Structure formats: structure tokens, C-alpha cells
Structure to design on (1382 residues):
């Protein structure tokens, strides 16, 4: 809502154009953006074009001890997805970079085999020949029959877009860690039960052997042992030893604390949301994987009958290794697959979508007071990956860091800077070089590519400093402050300089270097383990530090700092809030406050001066930041000035900007369209980045489309929307359920949420309405019937007419109050150039966000509601209030009521006790209704 | 065709722009009573309304928030009467009790602060139809087929002999330890005597001036009380010597009765003239008569203003608000707010035609004539102007309670209770709360 994803590229472009730069004119050949993979339908942002696969996918591979690296399965499990991409080859590549594969088995000086609870390792690597970039997550699973009891696996997220991998590293890492943890949990379970069986076998064998020896002893009275007897005794001894060994192993595996299971994020026993669909596909996956390995036997038989074990149970190579599913317990395996599907859905699509979504979600989270009004409740509840954003914020709060502040409107860059700051610090020399190197392309290339180039800097920096397991700090950037020590890692850089120097001018493409695999970075989680933990870490059996690490290692220290940041943030926000109050006081104690704006000039300036010293909080949506970047929030006067100028901008909707915007809209929409067309996936809407909610995304699109149609079709759209925004229940009356529901869907995007979890929208009602319904629902689709019951219903509508507006879908009329404001026309211009539903939806959301901020200002300005002094009369407060609404917020006529209603909702939400459900109030006005016809 | 005065959707004087619907009852809600200052509630000045219903449970709500405090179960039949019993200062206890009588021939006494049933009396021979608490004597009376006197501990102090099968329909406390009981057409005055050997209740006088059943009984001040009957008689009594001070028999359509008997029988059921409810302030008695509202001035001893058809059907409850406003609720499901205004004298015209013409074809003239006559007698003329209506219930509004500035609560046969509030005031209060909360939270708890 806050920033339309499909607008980003262009807004950046505008931003960049503003500062006049002395740069040489572009050479001829660069004046037109080069589309190296251009063809019919290609678009400049699509990096998919160069690769052999059509869309991102997840690959699970194993380093089999028998056949070497082999791909096991892909997600989505569709042969068309990898296409011509050589999975075998790529598996070989990704399996070859597991630096973590540590020795397991009999460590020197240890009597028994030890299980090593190996950390997962996370590597980013690129294969420019294949045009593939991958986040690779290595893990090891235990298998009693495997060499050293371990089987190395890896899960890789493979994308053609390098930036996506780099920028989403944290998120990917977190998600894959979860999936890996799930797998490993299942594996431990399976391993333990396997060990138990083995022990039973051994025990049985021992008994048998023992009996045999006894029998031999009895039969043998010669007083000396036969070779047979000696053999038996040896065998017995080895069995005994084996038992002890296995018991020890069992003890080790069992000692793994199952604390992880208590982690709220990790619910292996509860299917996660949207699982139905995932389940189906998982089952398919299972089915296919079973097909692939037909002779798989189900490992669990309820009552186990022990078998006799040959003394030499050698690990023979012709033996069938267990499948991944067998290794991990079917349940956990399916869980993992579900998670991986979820990951695939979350990260699919263009990285631009992902980033803007993350940013807007993070920003929305900030607006905790107002965001419930028009936002998806589901969107807010979700734990958005906002670490990156936090990082950015931390930077921007640093008062000295003006650069970041300036770049705030282009959050992407800021984010990159924020999260990779440390890498910049670590490799200063490299960086300079890089900047020099890549400066040229930036200058030379068409502006469209700037965005990518900006990112390229950063990537280049990273590439410069990364590589082996040592280069920990590169991606452990959350702790950027604490990781300045390991500069020796540079010494071990095995990177050939050629890829950077020779980097092609075109965005993300690189020349194919000799070694076609470049390890872009690794992030062994060891790097995040606090030092004292690390010290105790080598003791493999001791699970404690490991567990702690699991819980805290990845998140622990970052969280700490984040919390601190949070607190600071809150503190400063509170300050700001108080500042608002005091600012208000200053403004209002002066008699001039009640006077028109012009006389307030000096006063306002003072206020501003007092306020600007405080660094701004990105509380407002960025687009507002453009207009009132600093003072907007702190001083109502300047804020309103900003808003006013914004609103009065005649080009806002209909101007040339709008045209470009629309064309952009279409363009970017086609982008997603093309990529979806190109992908052979059966999903109808693969483009949405926030794919965790594909349904809602689709819903948005549909609602936006319907709303557009409604606006164009009905001249009385404005009063209808006004009714919704001012809290007057709108009844859509009609005979045809489909038409009514369509209208309701369309209009539902304008309905403010009353604070409950769902929007107060009822799509279809057939029974007569009561007052309670108006209290509960703000938009109702009502069936018109001809029966007596229908007459009854119409009677009820007439009776309650003061609470409702009635939109008759059949006769195309509206009965409702008059609307003469300026706000709704901006929201719903029937001559709008916007053509796409999703674009219109975003437009609505951004206008509504502005509206919310007005309502917020209005609600939280102390002196608009309470008297300044004891003796001030209620009337003067009321007049000040109206003054504020009209002059400062620039609201005309009925717009005032909209803001008042939203403010009322805000108040209710804010003062509501959490434990108390809260009775919804019905507020209404005694205003005449009019009948609108087409 | 509706002859009822209507008001458009624009109601400037109507302050009630916010409503809250309380659900919870499963049957007709018939009574609402005040319970002041429940010590349950943290804020001491909370006004608690008790909202009671036809059947066996009743609910206690806090007015401000609509929060349900208790759900009291105990009766097995519909509740017929309810009365709050506040603590007497002498005992030192500060408990508040509620008495409820039910058609299951029991009376239950409840503790308001805990919502618990304290005691249940079930020795009645008939349904108790009315309850009256005499705070002064710290006793309460129950009226059924006989009149019983009880103390706070639920000891039966004394009782009368069996009066009628129909039973006492209304009780009213009078000065000098007297009680007026409406029994059918008769009004019986009882006196309570507190002798050392025990309480006694004696019948003092029987008044049978009413032609039909007495429906309402209201005390105006220490000296006067008023009764209203089913056929539209209103009698003003002296509270000390129980003599008739004034009466208004069929005072609004006596003329009709006289010369249009058959017509009236056809068109008007007795209900249309019955005095459903009476209320009074110092100078006037307000009567809900049939579908209309009437204002009877005690000094002038005549009806000074009336609105024949204030509602579409019978008015069930009427109350005087400050600012000369009158509120009435009716079986038609609406609540209407009226304002008593002085009519500007327009000598040329017969004054009240405007209102009375709505009454019908033939009658209008007579009405007008009558009213005109009255106008001539007295210079000041009043009329009731509709200033607002509250529509929300889908069935008869049984009763409403005026909570002063807080608003109005209405209860209805549609099982709902609606709290009507002044939207402006509520909005302001919410702002105050909001800034208080903001100040409380102070620092880091709030996230913006």
C-alpha cells in the first residue's frame, strides 16, 4: 500500500534525475537501453531470459556415497521448471562447496564413534554459465548404514536473479533453517528408532551366540577350546562391543534437547496455513518420489522382531541407501516439503516485489495506531521479515548519516546499504576499486539500469570480501559493529578478479569466467555464535551450547541490538509525540492559532526550528515523505501545508505524471504477466511477490478491477463511497447474487475496518435486516425478493433509512446522503487512466493511507479535543477542531465527517482494553438522503 | 395512511447520534431500572442499569460500556415486578439488593454486588404483581391477591386478608405510612402500623371513583397523587385525606363520546383511550393515553397540550426530560422526543387545527372547536413539537430509562436493549480517555 511495487523503478528514476550531475554525455551506443535478451515479449527487468530455467525453484540434492552428487527432487516438482537446466551438473556444483562437512566417525583418541551435531552451512553461489544463482543450505542427516553415519544433503534456492539471492539472504536463510530443522528433527527420531532396532537385533544376536557358546561348552568336555569356540567367543565379544557403541550413539542422539520444538515458530505437528494446496502437491511429490524409488520399504513395523546379525555386517556398496523420506520420518518429510513449497511461493516473482512488500509491511507495522483501518489483517499479523528494514532504520536514526536520510525515498538502496554496511567497512580497498569499476557503467548505462547498478556496487563489495568459511562477517551483517576483526579473511580470498573487472555493463550479467562457479558468500552460522559458546562447542555430545546456539545463534545477538533499536525508536517516538503536544501548545496558546494560516507563518517556523533537530521517523508513508519530508509529522501546520500542496497538485491524477504512471503500471503488469506466461507453472497468478497470500492478492486484483468498473459505470459512485468511508452502512440490493457479490467485493476496498479481525463486510444476506446488522456490518449485499418477506425487507430498509444508504443494483439507483467533498473524487475518478485492477487497488490504498495519516493527526492532537486552559469553553475547542479540519487538513464539507469517523475508530481502537472484545458502536447523523439515478 | 406526525431525517435537536445494541436476552425485555453506584465497578460513579426480561433471567449491564455484569438465573416463570432495595444507613451495611417477583409465585432477593441470589420466598398464594420498597420504614411490600409486608431479612411482618382474585395491580407509597393499592376499579388505602407487639396493616379507605380498571398510579408530590384508568379517566387525589381534587374524564374526546357513540365503538378500541402510563413533574402530569401524549396542568386543572396520535400504536411509557422535553415510546417500536412549546397566539385562526386536523374528517372540527374554546379561556397555549425520533427496535419498545447526560436506554420486545448516546459527548469522552491512556503509557509501551 505504501509504495506501489510497480512504480519503484520509475520513482527512483525521478529521484535520480533531480540532482544535477556533471557527467559526460552518454555515448551513442548507450543512449538506448540494451536488451540483450530482447525478443518478442521480453522485458528489461527479466533476468530469467538468460537462464535455462523458466522460474525459481528449490533443489534438494544429496552427496551420495555411492554415486556422488545427485539431485533428489525439485520444488515445484515439475519437470518443466528446471527445463533444460542441468540438475546433475548443478548438484555437483553446489555439493562441492560444502566447507562444513566435518569428520564424523571415530575421532582420534576416542573409543567410540561420536556423532557430530553439525551446523548447517549456508552458501550463496553463482554459476554464470548456467545463468543460475543459488542460495545453498547444506545439512547432514544421520544414517546408521551410511559411511560415518552421515549423509550430506543440501537444499538450494535457485534463481536467475542474483540480487534476489543476495538481498533475500537473511530471509532465505531463516526459512531454510526452519525447513532444515524440521528435517533434522525427523531424522533424529528416525535415527533413534533405527538404533533401537539395531540394539534389539544385537541383543538377540548376543543371546543366540551366548546360548550357542553354552551349548558348545557343555558338549565340549575336553578342557580346551576349539577354534570354533574361540571364533564364537570373538564374535560374542564384538557383538558386545557393538552393543555398547550403539547404546552410546543412542544416548547421544537422545540427548539432543527437543527444545526447538517449543519454539513458537516451529510447529511440526500443526499444519501451517494454506496447507491444503501444499498438501496436495506434497502428496504428488511423495507419489513421484516413491515412483522414483520403487523398492522403498516402509521402515516402521509396529512390533519389531529382532533378527540375527552376521558378525561382519559390512557396508557393502550394492546396498540400497535409504531415501530421504525414510531418513526423516514421513511426517516430517511432508512437513518439510510443505515448508519448502511455502518458501518457493514466498520468494517467487521479481525481487522488486519482494522488497517493496517487505518495506511496506515494515512501514505498516510502524503505523500500529492506524494500520488496522484499511490494511489486511492477515498482512499485519504475519511476522514480516523486517530485519533489513530495521537495519535501514538504525542507520537512518543516526543523526550524522544524512546520506541515508536523503535516500530514504528510495528505500531499496538504503536497505542494501544498511544490511551490507559491514562488508563495506571490511573491504575498503576493494570497495574503492569496485566503485571505480562500476562507476562507468552507472554513468554510461541508461537510467533504467541504475537501480540494478546500485545493487551491483553492493554485490561487488560483497564479492570482494567473501569466500571461504572464514569470511563470516560478510553476511553476518546484523552484528555489523562487532565484526570488524577478521580482516585476515581477505588474505584467503581465492577470488579471481576477472569477474568484477570484466563485469559486463548490462545489469546483472557477467562474463563467463574460467571457473564458472563463484562462491559469492558463505554465512556459516558459527559466525554468529557468541565466543563463549564457541569455546564449548567442539564437544560434540554436549548439546547445551548447540541448543542455545540453535535458538539464539542466528537471531540472538541481532535481536538484542534490534530490541535496543526498537526501544530507542519507541523512546524517540514518544518524544516526538510529546513534541507534538508541546508544539500544539505553543501553537495554540498563542491567540494566533485560531486565526488563519497566513498569520501563523512565523509561529510555524519557530515550531519547525524546534523540531527539525530531531531526526525524522519514517512514520509516514514514503510518498508523503516526499512532500513534507521533515516537519510533516511534528508540526501540524507544515504538515497540513505539505498535504495541501500535495492535494492541490492538479496533476496528481490526471496530469502527465499520471500518464507515465499508468504506462508504467501496464508495463510492470506485463512484466509479471510475461513471466507468468513464460513459466509453465499451472498457478494462475505466479507473479505476486507476497505469495504467502496468493488468494488475497488475487482478491485485491479482482476487487480493484470491479471497483474500477463500478466507478466508471455508476455516476453516483462518490456518494456510495462516501457512505462507506463515513461509516454509514451501504446496502447493495439486488436479485442476482453474482452481481451483488461483485459489487460488494468492489466496494469492500473502501470499507474501513472497525478493529476486528475481518472487514465488516457481509456479501450476501437474504433475511430482513435489523439494527444489529448495521452495528456489525458496514457493507451488506442484500437479496431482493418479490415474496411478502421481500416486502417486509423493503419496509425494514425504509424504517432504518437513516442508518443506511441503499444501492439498488437492479434499478441502478442510490439512496444516500449528499457528498460534496474533494477527497472521494480523487479516490475514485471515473476518468482515471488506471487500467489495471491491482494498480487501482494500490492507488486506493495510497489515498487511504493519506487519509489515515490525517485522521491520525486529528485524533492525536491534544488541543483539538481538550481545552487548553480550565476556563476555555467547549465551543472554542470545537471551533478550533473544525478550523483544524478545514484549514489545516484541507477538508471540505463532508470530508470532515470521513476524518471524524476514522478518528473515532482510531480512538476506539486505541482505548480499547485488549481483553475486552468491545461492542461495535453505531454512529450516525441525522442528515437527509437523496435519490441518485443514472 | 399515516396520520402520525413525522419528522424528516434531519433532526438538529436530536442529540442521540450514537447507539449501542445490547444483546443477551432471549425474550421480551420489559423493565429497566437504575442501580446507582455499584461498588463492583472500579469507577464509582458508574451508573448501572438493570435490564430485566419477561422470563426467568435478567441481566445487569454497565451503561457506559454496555458491558454485561451478571446474568441472574433463578425464576422459572416470567418476572412480573422488580424493585431495587437500597441499603438503609442505620444497619451500616452498604449493600444493594434487588427484589424480583415472578409468575412462579416466588420473590427472590439478589445481591447486586455479587450477583448472587440471597434468598427466595415462595410462600405466596398467587403471583406477586407489584413490589414497593418503603425505604423510610426499611420494609417492602408485595402485592398479589393480598398485600404482604416484609422486612429486609425477608420476615413476613403482616399481611392483609385475601382481597380479590385479580390482585393488586399497582402500589404507591403515600405519606403517613399509607399505601395506595389499585385493585381493579378500586383504589384501596392501607396504613401500616408499627406497634411494639408487631406490624399491622389496616385498610383505611376504599375509593371507587374510577369506571374501569386503574392502570397507572403516580405520586406528584407529598400532597397529591394521580391515577389513570383504562377508559381514560384521570383523577387527581389529595394524598393526605384521599379526596378527589380534580378529575378529567375522557378529557380529550368527551365530545366524541357524547355525540358519536357508535362510530367510536367501531373505530376506537378502549385501548385507545386507556391511560397506559403517567409521569409528573411539579406542575404537570404527563399521561400516555392510547396513541397520544397529554400534558395536564395541575394548577390549571386541565390539559394544556396534547398530541393525539403521537405514535402509530399505543404509547407504553412516557417520561419527562429536562428542557421541557418529553419522551414517549410505543408499540410501534419507536421512541419520540417532544418538546413542550408555547404556542404563539394567532388570534385569527382556531389554534390547534394544525394538529387536530390529522385526527380525521368529521372530528377535526369538533376538536378544533373544543380546543379553540379552551384557548379562549386561557391565554397561554402549549403544544408538543416533535424534535426527534429514535428508530432502532423492530418491535414494541416496552420502556426506556433516561440516564441524564449519559443517554437513554430502551428495551423492547425484540429482545434488545439499545443505549442511545450523544455522539459528540461520547467522542469527547473518548478523546479524554485516549489522552489519559497516552499519558499513562508514557514511554516505550506504545509503538507508533
Amino acid at each position: 500500500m505504501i509504495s506501489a511495487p510497480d512504480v519503484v523503478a520509475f520513482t527512483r528514476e525521478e529521484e535520480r534525475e533531480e540532482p544535477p550531475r556533471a557527467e559526460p554525455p552518454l555515448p551513442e551506443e548507450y543512449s538506448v537501453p540494451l536488451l540483450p535478451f530482447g525478443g518478442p515479449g521480453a522485458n528489461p527487468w527479466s533476468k530469467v531470459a538468460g537462464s535455462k530455467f523458466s522460474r525459481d525453484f528449490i533443489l534438494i540434492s544429496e552427496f551420495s556415497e555411492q554415486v556422488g552428487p545427485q539431485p533428489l527432487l525439485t520444488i515445484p516438482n515439475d519437470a518443466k521448471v528446471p527445463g533444460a537446466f542441468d540438475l546433475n551438473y548443478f548438484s555437483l556444483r553446489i555439493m562441492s562447496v560444502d566447507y562444513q562437512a566435518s569428520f564424523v566417525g571415530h575421532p582420534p583418541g576416542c573409543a567410540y564413534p561420536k556423532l557430530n551435531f553439525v551446523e548447517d552451512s549456508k552458501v550463496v553461489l553463482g554459476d554464470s554459465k548456467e545463468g543460475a544463482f543459488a542460495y545453498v543450505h547444506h545439512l547432514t542427516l544421520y544414517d546408521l548404514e551410511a559411511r560415518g553415519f552421515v549423509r550430506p544433503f543440501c537444499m538450494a534456492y535457485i534463481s536467475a536473479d542474483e540480487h534476489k539471492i543476495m538481498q533475500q539472504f537473511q530471509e532465505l536463510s531463516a526459512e531454510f533453517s526452519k525447513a532444515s530443522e524440521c528435517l533434522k528433527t525427523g531424522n533424529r527420531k528416525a535415527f533413534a528408532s533405527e538404533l533401537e532396532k539395531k540394539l534389539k537385533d544385537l541383543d538377540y544376536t548376543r543371546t543366540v551366540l551366548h546360548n550357542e557358546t553354552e551349548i558348545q561348552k557343555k558338549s565340549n568336555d575336553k578342557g580346551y577350546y576349539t577354534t570354533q569356540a574361540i571364533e564364537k567367543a570373538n564374535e560374542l565379544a564384538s557383538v558386545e562391543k557393538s552393543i555398547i557403541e550403539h547404546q552410546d550413539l543412542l544416548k547421544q542422539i537422545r540427548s539432543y534437547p527437543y527444545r526447538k520444538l517449543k519454539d513458537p515458530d516451529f510447529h511440526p505437528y500443526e499444519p501451517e496455513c494454506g496447507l491444503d494446496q501444499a498438501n496436495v502437491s506434497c502428496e504428488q511429490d511423495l507419489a513421484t518420489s516413491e515412483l522414483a524409488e520403487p523398492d522403498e520399504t516402509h521402515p516402521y513395523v509396529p512390533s519389531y522382531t529382532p533378527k540375527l546379525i552376521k558378525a561382519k555386517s559390512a557396508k557393502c556398496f550394492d546396498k540400497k541407501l535409504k531415501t530421504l523420506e525414510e531418513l526423516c520420518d514421513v511426517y516430517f518429510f511432508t512437513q518439510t516439503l510443505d515448508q519448502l513449497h511455502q518458501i518457493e511461493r514466498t520468494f517467487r516473482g521479481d525481487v522488486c516485489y519482494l522488497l517493496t512488500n517487505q518495506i511496506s509491511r515494515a512501514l505498516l507495522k510502524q503505523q500500529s495506531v492506524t494500520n488496522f483501518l484499511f490494511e489486511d489483517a492477515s498482512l499485519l499479523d504475519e511476522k514480516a521479515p523486517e530485519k533489513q528494514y530495521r537495519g535501514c532504520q538504525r542507520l537512518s536514526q543516526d543523526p550524522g548519516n544524512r546520506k541515508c536520510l536523503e535516500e530514504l525515498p528510495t528505500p531499496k538502496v538504503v536497505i542494501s546499504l544498511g544490511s551490507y554496511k559491514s562488508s563495506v567497512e571490511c573491504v575498503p580497498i576493494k570497495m574503492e576499486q569496485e566503485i571505480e569499476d562500476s562507476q562507468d557503467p552507472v554513468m554510461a548505462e541508461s537510467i533504467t539500469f541504475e537501480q540494478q547498478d546500485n545493487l551491483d556496487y553492493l554485490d561487488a563489495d560483497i564479492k570482494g570480501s567473501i569466500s571461504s568459511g572464514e569470511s563470516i562477517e560478510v553476511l553476518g551483517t546484523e552484528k555489523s559493529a562487532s565484526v570488524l576483526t577478521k580482516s585476515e579473511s581477505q588474505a584467503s580470498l581465492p577470488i579471481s578478479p576477472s569477474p568484477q573487472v570484466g563485469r559486463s555493463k548490462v545489469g546483472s550479467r557477467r562474463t563467463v569466467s574460467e571457473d564458472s562457479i563463484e562462491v559469492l558468500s558463505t554465512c556459516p552460522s558459527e559466525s554468529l555464535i557468541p565466543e563463549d559458546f564457541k569455546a564449548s562447542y567442539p564437544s560434540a555430545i554436549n548439546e547445551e551450547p548447540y541448543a542455545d546456539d540453535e535458538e539464539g545463534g542466528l537471531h540472538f545477538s541481532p535481536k538484542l541490538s534490534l530490541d535496543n533499536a526498537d526501544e530507542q525508536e519507541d523512546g524517540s517516538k514518544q518524544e516526538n509525540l510529546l513534541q507534538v503536544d508541546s508544539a500544539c501548545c505553543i501553537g495554540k496558546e498563542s491567540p494566533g492559532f485560531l486565526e488563519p494560516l497566513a498569520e501563523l507563518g512565523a509561529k510555524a517556523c519557530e515550531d519547525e526550528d524546534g523540531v527539525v533537530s530531531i531526526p525524522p521517523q519514517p512514520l509516514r508513508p514514503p510518498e508523503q515523505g516526499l512532500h513534507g519530508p521533515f516537519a510533516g509529522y511534528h508540526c501540524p501546520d507544515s504538515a497540513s501545508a505539505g498535504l495541501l500542496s500535495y492535494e492541490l497538485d492538479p496533476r496528481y491524477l490526471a496530469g502527465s505524471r499520471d500518464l507515465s504512471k499508468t504506462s508504467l503500471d501496464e508495463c510492470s503488469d506485463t512484466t509479471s504477466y510475461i513471466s507468468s506466461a513464460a513459466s509453465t507453472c499451472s498457478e494462475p497468478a505466479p507473479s505476486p511477490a507476497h505469495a504467502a497470500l496468493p488468494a488475497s492478492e488475487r482478491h485485491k486484483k479482482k476487487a480493484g478491477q470491479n471497483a474500477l468498473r463500478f466507478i466508471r459505470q455508476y455516476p453516483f459512485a462518490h456518494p456510495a463511497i462516501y457512505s462507506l468511508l463515513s461509516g454509514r452502512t451501504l446496502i447493495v440490493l439486488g436479485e442476482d447474487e453474482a452481481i451483488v457479490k461483485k459489487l460488494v467485493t468492489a466496494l469492500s476496498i473502501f470499507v474501513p475496518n472497525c478493529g476486528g479481525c475481518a472487514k465488516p463486510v457481509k456479501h450476501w444476506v437474504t433475511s430482513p435486516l435489523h439494527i444489529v446488522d448495521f452495528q456489525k456490518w458496514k457493507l451488506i449485499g442484500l437479496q431482493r425478493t418479490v415474496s411478502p418477506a421481500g416486502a417486509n425487507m423493503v419496509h425494514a430498509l425504509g424504517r432504518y433509512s437513516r442508518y443506511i444508504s441503499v444501492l439498488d443494483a437492479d434499478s441502478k439507483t442510490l439512496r444516500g446522503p449528499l457528498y460534496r467533498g474533494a477527497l472521494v473524487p480523487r479516490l475514485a475518478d471515473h476518468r482515471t487512466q488506471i487500467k489495471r485492477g491491482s494498480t487501482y487497488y494500490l492507488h486506493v490504498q495510497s489515498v487511504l493511507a493519506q487519509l489515515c495519516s490525517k485522521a491520525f493527526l486529528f485524533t492525536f492532537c491534544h488541543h483539538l479535543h481538550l481545552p487548553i486552559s480550565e476556563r476555555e469553553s467547549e465551543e472554542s475547542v470545537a471551533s478550533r477542531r473544525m478550523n483544524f479540519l478545514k484549514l489545516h487538513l484541507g477538508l471540505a464539507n463532508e470530508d470532515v465527517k470521513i476524518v471524524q469517523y476514522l478518528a473515532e475508530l482510531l480512538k476506539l481502537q486505541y482505548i480499547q482494553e485488549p481483553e475486552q472484545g468491545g461492542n461495535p458502536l453505531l454512529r450516525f447523523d441525522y442528515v437527509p438522503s437523496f435519490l441518485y439515478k443514472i | 395512511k399515516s396520520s402520525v406526525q413525522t419528522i424528516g431525517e434531519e433532526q438538529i435537536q436530536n442529540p442521540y447520534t450514537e447507539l449501542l445494541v445490547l444483546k443477551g436476552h432471549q425474550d421480551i425485555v420489559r423493565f429497566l431500572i437504575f442501580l446507582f453506584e455499584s461498588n463492583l465497578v472500579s469507577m464509582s460513579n458508574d451508573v448501572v442499569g438493570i435490564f430485566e426480561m419477561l422470563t426467568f433471567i435478567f441481566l445487569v449491564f454497565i451503561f457506559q460500556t454496555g458491558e454485561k455484569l451478571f446474568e441472574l438465573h433463578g425464576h422459572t416463570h416470567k418476572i412480573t415486578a422488580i424493585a431495587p432495595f437500597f441499603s438503609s444507613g442505620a444497619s451500616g451495611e452498604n449493600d444493594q439488593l434487588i427484589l424480583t417477583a415472578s409468575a412462579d409465585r416466588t420473590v427472590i432477593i439478589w445481591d447486586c454486588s455479587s450477583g448472587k441470589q440471597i434468598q427466595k420466598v415462595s410462600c405466596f398464594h398467587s403471583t406477586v404483581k407489584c413490589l414497593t420498597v418503603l425505604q423510610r420504614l426499611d420494609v417492602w411490600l408485595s402485592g398479589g391477591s393480598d398485600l404482604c409486608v416484609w422486612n429486609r431479612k425477608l420476615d413476613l411482618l403482616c399481611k392483609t386478608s385475601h382481597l380479590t382474585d385479580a390482585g393488586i395491580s399497582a402500589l404507591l407509597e403515600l405519606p403517613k405510612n399509607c399505601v395506595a393499592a389499585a385493585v381493579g376499579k378500586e383504589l384501596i388505602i392501607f396504613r401500616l402500623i408499627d406497634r411494639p407487639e408487631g406490624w399491622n396493616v389496616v385498610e383505611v379507605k376504599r375509593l371507587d371513583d374510577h369506571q374501569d380498571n386503574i392502570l397507572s398510579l403516580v405520586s406528584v408530590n407529598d400532597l397529591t397523587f394521580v391515577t389513570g384508568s383504562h377508559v381514560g379517566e384521570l383523577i387527581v387525589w389529595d394524598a393526605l385525606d384521599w379526596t378527589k381534587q380534580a378529575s378529567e374524564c375522557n378529557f380529550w374526546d368527551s365530545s366524541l363520546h357524547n355525540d358519536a357513540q357508535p362510530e367510536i365503538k367501531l373505530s376506537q378500541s378502549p385501548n385507545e383511550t386507556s391511560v397506559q402510563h403517567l409521569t409528573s413533574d411539579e406542575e404537570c402530569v404527563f399521561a400516555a393515553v392510547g396513541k397520544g401524549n397529554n400534558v395536564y396542568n395541575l394548577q390549571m386543572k386541565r390539559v394544556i397540550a396534547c398530541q393525539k396520535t403521537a405514535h402509530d400504536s399505543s404509547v407504553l411509557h412516557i417520561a419527562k426530560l429536562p428542557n421541557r422535553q418529553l419522551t414517549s415510546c410505543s408499540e410501534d417500536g419507536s421512541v419520540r422526543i417532544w418538546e413542550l412549546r408555547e404556542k404563539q397566539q394567532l388570534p385569527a385562526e382556531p389554534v390547534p387545527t394544525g394538529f387536530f386536523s390529522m385526527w380525521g374528517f368529521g372530528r377535526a372540527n369538533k376538536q378544533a372547536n373544543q380546543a379553540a374554546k379552551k384557548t379562549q379561556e386561557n391565554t397561554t397555549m402549549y403544544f408538543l413539537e416533535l424534535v426527534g425520533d429514535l428508530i432502532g427496535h423492530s418491535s414494541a419498545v416496552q420502556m426506556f430509562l433516561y440516564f441524564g447526560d449519559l443517554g437513554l436506554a430502551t428495551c423492547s420486545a425484540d429482545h434488545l436493549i439499545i443505549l442511545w448516546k450523544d455522539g459528540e459527548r461520547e467522542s469527547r469522552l473518548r478523546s479524554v480517555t485516549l489522552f489519559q491512556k497516552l499519558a499513562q503509557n508514557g514511554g516505550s509501551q506504545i509503538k507508533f
In short: The longest strand of chain B covers residues 381-391. Chain B touches chain A at residues 8-12, 14, 17-23, 65-67, 388, 391-394, 414, 416, 418, 423, 426-428, 430-435, 437-438, 442-448 (CB under 8 Å). DSSP finds five helices and 32 strands in chain B. Chain B has a mean pLDDT of 75.
